[in-house]
Amino acid sequence: MADGRGDPGVFTATALPGDPRLLPTLTNAFLGTRAFRDILHAAGVYSGAAGDTHRADVPSPLGLRMAAPGARSPAESFTLNTWTGTFSHTIQSPGYTATHQLYAHHSLVHLMAFSITLRRLDGCTHPVTVQLQSLFVPQSQDLDLTPGPDFQGAHYIYGRTLVPEVEGGPRPAVHMLWTPIPQSLTLGGEERERCWEFLTAVAGSEEEAKRSYSAGLALVAAGSLHRSHVRAWAALRRSCSVELDGPLALRQALHGCLYYLLSAIPPRDGPGAPFHGISPGGLSNGTRGEDYWGHVFWDQDTWMFPNFLLLRPEAARAILQYRVRTLEGARRNAREHGCEGAKFPWESAATGREVCPEEIYGAQEIHVTGDVLMAFEQYYCTTQDQKLFREDGGWELVEAVAQYWCSRMEWSEEEQLYHIRGVMPPDEYHSQVDNSAYTNAVARRSLNFAADLARDLLLPVPEEWEDRARKIKVPFDEERKYHPEYDGYSPGEPVKQADVVLLGFPLMHPMSAEVRRNDLEMYEPVTDPAGPAMTWSMFAMGWLELKELQRAQSQLEKCFSNITEPFKVWVENSDGSGAVNFLTGMGGFLQVVLFGFTGFRITRSGLLFDPAFPDDITKLNVSGVSYLGNKLEVAITREETRMEVTETSRDPPASPLEAVLQSGQRFPLWEGQSVSFPTAPGWIQRSPS
User: Fold this and answer.
1) Taking the model in full, what pTM does it have?
2) Where is the Glycoside hydrolase family 65 central catalytic domain (predicted)?
């Protein structure tokens, strides 16, 4: 059992899981691998055309195992420390310990490293030897690799992917330097302790690979390579800390989610290189046939993004810039389907063209285009960053999505409403349906945001945007007071995953508490219990909204069947099938804590709050909540809520804030001054003063 001696952020085991897919991942914004795996992946490096596009396998010198052949019954342990972003394997023998540490450097994103440390425990002077068992071969099924001259003691290979994503398109380059690895290491008879460090640098150019390798060597010489990584990682964890007083299993799950999700985003002061999006299984996975080939879905924009937005808005912006960069591909997708504007792909890689291997999803699961735009809207409401829209391509994307929805709708003379026909809703058990409630509601939200943003930017608002937003059909059963999933849906029909319940959150589609309850009651019993992991989080969100805390807890507990031991790696489906290291499920789970327990809701006028959490949780503390250039620390108990602005942006200057309770009480939020009030509904807004 991974008890971490009671520390919820340290997962320790004496044996590894039988399924190597469940080993912990080590990733940063550019590189990713799994512990003991002989391949790694680099962000944006895909090989294969169209539906065969997959993350290119880069051979990894990091995938070795340490063995102590002469040791008498050694004790082994394996630890993932989420506070230091480090995985370690320790062999404890009667006379010595051998420790193998592995990490993806958080701030030097082109660098991964491991160390082997041998330390004597007694006065014995016999040499101590450990073997390094490696499967590394400098070859790849996806890259045309050539050896180059050694550099500062490192071996060097370079090459390009074999097949471009689109005909005539670029084939990304890979340059890799690595410290040669001996078959064994020996601690001499007179030595008490020794540490050997091994670097692997991977980049898209020879210059960057050499620069990163040299920077790593300099840190090794100063004795501070691992320390520099731990310092960068710890600063990230401190700046977006989420802690709760509650059951150990819940706290462990929370720290696991934070570790795997935060590993995927660029460092705050990292290089200005383009970010390449986040796939459901992360950068460590996505070879051909695995974890959806490393493609980017709505999982990024709907399930992961809101957490990053609240805690790390710079990372959220990088995700949006990935979508801006792929806008031309999305325009081509729209044209190929006879539409105007931009149709974002169901599965995206480097170009924004559709790379889903099965045509039906790319053609019909069009809600992804609205999901992308909802992330832009949430970002705008939270940051008021007009530069993204005025100068950095955001407005062109918003406009193109609005144009797409207008061209995809048809007028129904019979109902005097606009229809969207022939789609697959989030519930993938149904296809070719008309008027998916979720798809049409997200289209309406897209059009409303486009119109609101145009006004803010002092641009003309096309009349058809507002007209179609008003007149698009969102199916509603007046008799039963609930939203049918699509035209012709019969109550009781099985549903794959969260669909209509997403109208309440994150869409915040207008409805009464009665309708919200009816939607939850209607779909909860017919949703496939073996469906994807993020589903139950959204039912928990709905019940928290309605203050049905026991029902919320029972939904949240379903998530635990998707969390594997001992390293808290999520699987997409509770039977172990689907994606592994399922960041989508983790994103949904984290949203329950960050948006469900707090009641945070992002609106144009303010950040709403209305806390509620299950009986076995007594306190929630979130540091680094970002809103309008301010960083807030928020501590909530059932009786009292405390808020403090801990940091304000200088350029552009942060907006002064106040907390307002529904009762009308106002509390100015000044930097460095803590305010407390009874826990109750309210909102944070720009202070009128």
Assistant:
1) 0.97
2) 284-490
